Amino acid sequence: MIPPAPQVAVVTDSTSDIPRDVAQDLKIQIVPALLTVEGQTYRDGEGMSRAAFYKRLPTLSEPATTAAPSPQVFAEAYERALRWGAKEVLSIHLSPKLSGILNAAAQGAKAFGARVQTFDSGQLSLALGFQAMEAATAALAGASLEAVIQTARRAQQRVHLVAMIDTLEYLRRSGRVSWLRAGLGNLLQVKLLVEVVDGVVERLGQVRTRAKALASLHELVRGWGPLQRVAVIHSAVPEEARAYAARLRDQSHAPPLVVDVTTIIGAHVGPRSLGVVGLTR
């Protein structure tokens, strides 16, 4: 027997980096963002694999660009959720300080009134994804819309994201990090450590070598204490990411996820970056 749909459906966007099987299990609907590579536009995850994208990225004749889905695409997602049996929808997305996705979602939600609520995660990648996963878990347990929102808000307060950016060229091109435009010449030969706080990419420091950068990252993550969930996110360094995840296994209640970040994020951080997302207990 197929279990009934939850009364509250959770919708997010592809920058959440939630693995497909996890999204299916939790009944999370994911709306793909848009990626343009040398004049060709793709729906995130369709037509170009992440592996193929990262292989092409250093050789592109012009920078890859990204865009939000249209409000109509979000409206169609909400309509599907309601048609499939949900009474209400929580739509949780990438920080508006980094993208126009939340605004597009809010525009798409207008026709549905109070039945569709949008939520600013203040995060990206699985720091957004963990919030959606916690919300969806509550929804599957029968929680009301208000209780699902409160679950997402509690997760938002407990989630952390730190990362090592291997090369700063792509982040500079993106223009999403204002402080990077100043003094760039002094940073080109370093590995940058960053943290996302309330939708803002903040600089934690920089080191000269990759090994030292990863050691610093590990020290930061250990400082978070026991974790309910943890993930290693990376751009085309899967073996290194799996090895790094193994070091975190004893810190997390759930086995670490290892995720090659979406091309939408990869276009801005470039290849060979690595980060850790943790949800504290």
Within the largest sheet, what's the order of strands?
Answer: 10-9-8-13-11-12
Summarize the biggest pleated sheet.
6 strands, mixed
The helix content, as a percent range, equals 25-40%
- Look at the structure and give the CATH class of the largest domain: Alpha Beta
Radius of gyration: 18 Å
**Could you give the distance between the termini?**
34 Å
Along the chain, the helix and strand elements come as EHEEEHEHEHEHHEHEEHEHEHE
Morphology: globular
- CATH topology title of the largest domain: Hypothetical Protein Tm841, Chain: A,domain 3
Task: Show unreliable segments.
Answer: none
* Helix/strand class: alpha/beta
Number of helices: 10
User: Average pLDDT across residues?
Assistant: 91
Domain tally: 2
* Beta fraction: 25-35%
The CATH architecture of the largest domain: 2-Layer Sandwich
Number of strands: 13
Please characterize this protein's 3D structure.
The protein is α/β, with parallel strands linked by helices. It has two domains: 112 residues, Rossmann fold, CATH 3.40.50; 123 residues, Hypothetical Protein Tm841, Chain: A,domain 3. The protein has ten helices and 13 strands. It has a six-stranded mixed sheet with strand order 10-9-8-13-11-12, sandwiched between helices. The longest helix is centred in the middle third of the chain and has 16 residues. The two termini are 34 Å apart. The mean pLDDT is 91.
